[in-house]
Design a protein that fits this description.
Elements: E1 2-8, H1 12-17, E2 23-24, H2 26-39, H3 45-61, E3 66-72, H4 78-95, E4 103-108, H5 117-121, E5 126-131, H6 140-152, H7 154-179, H8 184-203, H9 207-223, H10 227-254, H11 261-293, H12 303-321, H13 334-361
Parallel strand pairs: 1-3, 1-4, 4-5
Antiparallel strand pairs: 2-3
Helix pairs in contact: 2-3, 7-8, 10-11, 11-12, 12-13
Protein name: DUF373 family protein
Pfam families: DUF373 (PF04123)
InterPro entries: DUF373 (IPR007254)
């Protein structure tokens, strides 16, 4: 048996006519449609009821075993409305208990009513669905419902309305700025920059990255990790080293000794590397301290500052070998370079061997 099911999710039929639902049978549905049309001629559910009767008559004329019914939800929450429709569908199926399998053709007037389709499908198969739309207002209700759903979603609302609000504020803010003799172009540039940064932020999906970074910083602050302090100190040392490297470049350039690109790079490294070494040792000591406090200390972790020192010695010597005498530059000869390379190698190798032996002979903390 086929059931033509007219769906009125917000219960316009019951609220405006007082007719109890569900309404079953072509004659009763026709009377309900006339009553609703009399109460509110502009209600689109009138068309749904008449369409249901029309489909019923067409199928009955073709010899199909068919019945028509109208079910309603409640005005307000979609979840409660869907549950109300489900209960009325159960009542309709109970009254149609003919022993035959019942399938449905659902008649609605837009996307909002179609949200109840899973509820109906859980009770019987759906052979078809027909949306009734007044020709003069085609897709109007669906568009309204779509916009309503978009604006009801917090994430989508923030993504769309925030940039739109800033854009709409640009003109009045520029006008106000001009009244106070503030450059309107500056205000326009600032607001456009804000919208641009926001769009890039959302487009690149940086929300999770920023949230994760903020959570990491909070965790570091709350747990009292030494690395927070040592990283800040290391960053300050790198800034100072960068400035020192630029000063060394200027000093080498002022000597007029053929400052090629390679020489300038060597000068920058020569001025930077001392500060870079101190920054590396500081940050590695902070990390070692945190590992020790967390009970994860290993003797081999002490290799880090020695490796940094070894690399710094090599870079300092190599860069100084290629530089002329200048303020802030320690020019090195070939014997000095060989000695520095040997020293850097020995520092790395000896530290590795020493801490490997220490780790094999002395106890270290077990992993947390």
């Amino acid at each position: 048996m086929l059931l033509v099911l007219c769906v009125d999710l917000d219960d316009d039929l019951g609220r405006k006519t007082g007719i109890p639902t569900p309404v079953i049978g072509a004659d009763d549905v026709t009377e309900a449609a006339v009553a609703l049309a009399t109460a509110d001629p502009e209600d689109s559910d009138v068309n749904v009821l008449f369409q249901g009767v029309n489909v019923h008559d067409e199928l009955a004329a073709a010899g199909e075993a068919v019945e028509v019914a109208a079910v309603t939800g409640i005005d307000g929450s979609d979840v409660k409305a869907n549950r109300a429709v489900g209960k009325e569908v159960d009542r309709v199926l109970a009254e149609l208990s003919t022993g035959e399998e019942v399938s449905a053709v659902v008649i609605t007037d837009g996307a909002q009513d179609e949200s109840v389709l899973p509820v109906i499908r859980s009770r019987m198969p759906i052979d078809g669905m027909r949306r009734v739309v007044v020709r003069q207002a085609q897709d109007l209700e669906s568009l309204y419902y779509t916009i309503k759903q978009v604006l009801a979603d917090p994430e989508t609302r923030g993504t769309i309305l925030v940039p739109l609000g800033v854009l709409l504020l640009i003109y009045p803010l520029v006008v106000v700025a001009n009244l106070f003799d503030v450059a309107g172009a500056a205000v326009l540039g600032i607001l456009s920059g804000i919208v641009g940064l926001y769009s890039l932020f959302r487009g690149l999906g940086l929300e999770d990255t920023v949230d994760g970074a903020a959570a990491t910083v909070r965790n570091v602050l709350y747990t009292g990790r030494v690395t927070l302090v040592t990283y800040v100190v290391a960053l300050a040392l790198l800034v100072v080293g960068g400035v020192q490297g630029l000063d060394t470049v200027e000093a080498v350039r002022d000597t007029g000794a053929g400052a090629t690109t390679g020489i300038l790079v060597a000068a920058f490294v020569h001025g930077l590397v001392q500060w870079l070494a101190v920054a590396g040792v500081t940050s590695s000591l902070g990390q070692i301290t945190d590992e020790y406090l967390a009970g994860r200390f290993r003797w081999r972790y002490l290799n880090a500052p020695f490796y940094v020192l070894s690399i710094a010695v090599v870079l300092y010597a190599v860069s100084g070998f290629f530089l002329p005498a200048a303020p802030g530059v320690t020019p090195l000869g070939l014997p000095d370079l060989a000695l520095a390379l040997a020293a850097g190698t020995l520092i790395g190798v000896l530290s590795t061997l020493a801490f490997a032996v220490a780790e094999s002979q002395l106890p270290s903390a077990e992993p947390a």
